[in-house]
UniProtKB/TrEMBL annotation:
<dbReference type="GO" id="GO:0005737">
    <property type="term" value="C:cytoplasm"/>
</dbReference>
<keyword id="KW-0349">Heme</keyword>
<dbReference type="InterPro" id="IPR051872">
    <property type="entry name" value="Cytochrome_b5/Flavoprotein_Rdt"/>
</dbReference>
<dbReference type="Pfam" id="PF00173">
    <property type="entry name" value="Cyt-b5"/>
</dbReference>
<keyword id="KW-0479">Metal-binding</keyword>
<protein>
    <recommendedName>
        <fullName>Cytochrome b5 heme-binding domain-containing protein</fullName>
    </recommendedName>
</protein>
<dbReference type="GO" id="GO:0020037">
    <property type="term" value="F:heme binding"/>
</dbReference>
<feature type="region of interest" description="Disordered">
    <location>
        <begin position="24"/>
        <end position="95"/>
    </location>
</feature>
<feature type="domain" description="Cytochrome b5 heme-binding">
    <location>
        <begin position="158"/>
        <end position="234"/>
    </location>
</feature>
<dbReference type="InterPro" id="IPR001199">
    <property type="entry name" value="Cyt_B5-like_heme/steroid-bd"/>
</dbReference>
<dbReference type="InterPro" id="IPR036400">
    <property type="entry name" value="Cyt_B5-like_heme/steroid_sf"/>
</dbReference>
<dbReference type="InterPro" id="IPR018506">
    <property type="entry name" value="Cyt_B5_heme-BS"/>
</dbReference>
<keyword id="KW-0408">Iron</keyword>
<comment type="similarity">
    <text>Belongs to the cytochrome b5 family.</text>
</comment>
<dbReference type="GO" id="GO:0046872">
    <property type="term" value="F:metal ion binding"/>
</dbReference>
<dbReference type="GO" id="GO:0004128">
    <property type="term" value="F:cytochrome-b5 reductase activity, acting on NAD(P)H"/>
</dbReference>
Amino acid sequence: MTSYLRTWLTSPLNSAEPVVPTLTIVSEPPPENGDDSDTETVRGADDDDAPPAFPAINSAQRLSSASSKPAPLPRILNDSELMPPPPLPSLAARQPGVPIASSSLVVPSSANMLAPPLSTTKAPAKKSRKVALAPGHGPLDWANLKKSGKDLRGTDQLMRITPSILKQHNKKDDAWSAFNGKVYNITHYLPYHPGGEKELMRVAGRDGTRLFSLTHAWVNVDYMLDGCLVGFLVSES
Ligand code: HEM
């Protein structure tokens, strides 16, 4: 329409003889099959605001719903067809104030109902048997002494040591002990032992493997006493 008016205004005929354009409103023909009835169309003056039919006229959805019958109502079952009720729980037979003999319901009389369940109570902490070490005898001091290069073995070479030889080294100033088949000179370690000198002296001159693992199997004796190794424990023969 705009281009038509522009052409008319600029045409040479315009100045000579005015031509009055005629505007014909052609109403749109109704849809043939109704297929596009849900699409937006420009309608004439007689158009109303009625929404398009949904489901669309002649649509498969409308046709199928028209042909199908309404769903049958559910049938009410008679007594013989019903599922039997569940058995009565034993609690239902309980009389107020009358104790039940059933063992499953017996609560131990000693149980304190306000106490936390046994599964959540902590095991009592074991009392530590560590001793107060003299100043300058902590674990770091022992590590420094090992690094210092000081002779902690007291022997020139590694030896084969029988139990009888081991037994001779049972003094505080000359203490050897065997752990896992290795014999260590524990003399210098005595004042550094967190469990105390007295405890450690229990294994002086003998095999201490069992006592050691009973007390602190997690302690790495090979690392702690690596500078004190004197030999290996062998049998007497
Ligand atoms: C020469 C080998 C041994 C080494 C290197 C050694 C080392 C240690 C270490 C590092 C601890 C501290 C553990 C911790 O902080 O949890 C400790 C504690 C202790 N050790 Fe030894 N130990 C030795 C041998 C023994 C032996 C043979 C006994 C027993 C006769 C013993 C008895 C104890 C005790 C009672 C404690 C205190 C445990 C506690 O915390 O209650 N140790 N020892």
